Amino acid sequence: MRAWVVRAGREGEREKTALDGGLAIAGWTGLDDLTDVESREDIRALVEAVYPGEGARVISNWTGQLLRFRHEIQVGDLVVLPLTSWDLAIGRVTGAYAYRADAPDSMRHVRPVEWLVRDVPREAFRQDLLDSLGSLLTVFELSRYNGAERIAEIVATGTDPGRPDADRFAAALTSPSKLYEAVSKRGPGTPLKISIRDFLAVWNAPRRYSAVVDQIEQDLSLLGLTTTPPFTEGSLDSEIAVLPLGDEPDRERTSAITRSGIQVEEETEQQPVAYLVSNLDAANRLPESVRVGDNLRSAMTLMILRKYAQLPVLDEDGRLRGVVSWESIGRARMSNPSAELAEATAKAREADRSDDLLDWIGQIYQTGYVFVRDHDLKVCGLVTAADLAVQFRTRVRPFVLIEEIEQRLRRVVDAHIPLEAIKDAVKGVVSARRLDSIRSAADISFGAYKHLLKNEENWRRLGWTADRDLFLSWLEECRHFRNSLMHFSPDPLTDDQLAPAQGMLDLLRSLDPHS
């Protein structure tokens, strides 16, 4: 069994017919019956004949979608239909492809479907599966994250069981109240430990936006719970303990936290969400090291084997006593050819995992690295200049995608749509004063393009052959994505979360390759 998404048009124009008629419907107006078309090459030939103005990339993409709809979707497979109400319908395919010659042109290619549920809220999907629904395609498979089995479980129980590789216990924590129950059932010696990623999933949150952090902190306060380290620190895969904070003392006059033996960090005046050193994965991976008293030969051998430029020198408690590097070895051996580890150990800087990352950028670029210590003053990580490069590439990429999308939209609109038409399109959504200041597409907001291109004449002026409703709907998803970037989060975006922007940019590049 497989699971597929078959959209009903981005404006939902095929939605009612699909639900009322028990159908999954593909569009592609003008395309004739595919019943006797067996191969990909034959489908491609038909698509090329019907849409002669399209380039090879568009033809190949449409061919693939039609091949899925005609041949790959099988009886018994599940179909997800995103609805204009923002809910989703889920059905099971009950028959082969059919062509309805007497139906409207955009409703002829169908697969019979038994709709099992028609009002599944998006909240029923965990974020990774919900992100997988984001695609510009009309027909595509939910192949990642055990999608088919999870869709079937949502039909049966109304609940998404989560990724198969996720912690099964964590997947059962589907609400703050269930988290409280899990914590309260545990004894003092067995605190609930969970990754920050799975902890956020309790609130169905993929990242730590400020609003999400505020909500979680309010809920924890009401439930009498706390986390250590704070859930605002560390990477998404770092582990935290969730502890009872509000229970009364026992007969020995001690709290549950004291009985657990876990040291809870005191609250600071630091902002609850920031780019902390601990947000880097490298800050939470204990680096290989040598110990005080080891011989220099061991350190050099390890550095060659691992291609390390430096190693921390730790004492028996795991605390930093210095660093040995090829530079420090060279300096020591120049004055004493038989120098050992103690003479080749140089001073090293340590960042606390709770420090603001921005405060350490200069030091890391200057020396190439900084060691990271935890709240017990033990080394817990090593951040290098390469780690910073990866971090900021990840951060910058979403903004670069949105910037190129906006630049391409501005250029094509200015080139093809008169200024008065631009003003007319946004007249009802901006103030009169703002309207007078518009001199080009650069003066309208990202959201205004929806109103501008909804006008049939303006769309015609662009000369694009893409589906306008699909384009506008995807543009709206990009607007939501763009707005979400304005809400600070220290956590990186996944490829699935980037899909709306990347898909729109790919389409714009295909529609206007020379801009």
Tell me what the structure shows.
Strands 1, 2, 3, 4, 5, 6 and 7 form a seven-stranded mixed β-sheet that branches. The chain has a four-stranded mixed β-sheet with strand order 11-12-13-14. Strands 8-10-9 form a three-stranded antiparallel β-sheet. It is an alpha+beta fold and 515 residues long. Helix 16 packs across helix 18 (448-454). The mean pLDDT is 86. It is built from 21 helices and 17 strands. The protein has four domains: 3-157, Roll (ph1033 like fold); 168-273, no CATH class; 279-377, CBS-domain (Roll), CATH 3.10.580; 388-511, no CATH class. Strand 11 (290-291), helix 11 (296-306) and strand 12 (310-314) form a beta-alpha-beta unit.
Low-confidence stretches: none
Estimate the helix proportion, in percent.
Answer: 40-55%
CATH topology of the largest domain: ph1033 like fold
- Going by helix content, strand content and strand pairing, the class is alpha+beta
Principal-axis shape equals globular
Number of helices: 21
How are the SSEs placed, and which strands pair?
Layout: E1 3-6, H1 15-21, E2 23-26, H2 40-50, H3 56-72, E3 78-82, E4 88-93, E5 98-99, E6 109-120, H4 127-132, E7 139-141, H5 147-157, H6 168-171, H7 176-184, E8 192-195, H8 196-201, H9 210-223, E9 225-228, E10 239-244, H10 256-260, E11 290-291, H11 296-306, E12 310-314, E13 320-325, H12 326-335, H13 341-344, E14 345-346, E15 350-352, H14 361-367, E16 369-373, E17 379-384, H15 385-416, H16 419-426, H17 432-436, H18 448-454, H19 456-462, H20 468-485, H21 495-511
Parallel strand pairs: 1-3, 11-12, 15-16
Antiparallel strand pairs: 1-7, 2-6, 3-4, 4-6, 5-6, 8-10, 9-10, 12-13, 13-14, 16-17
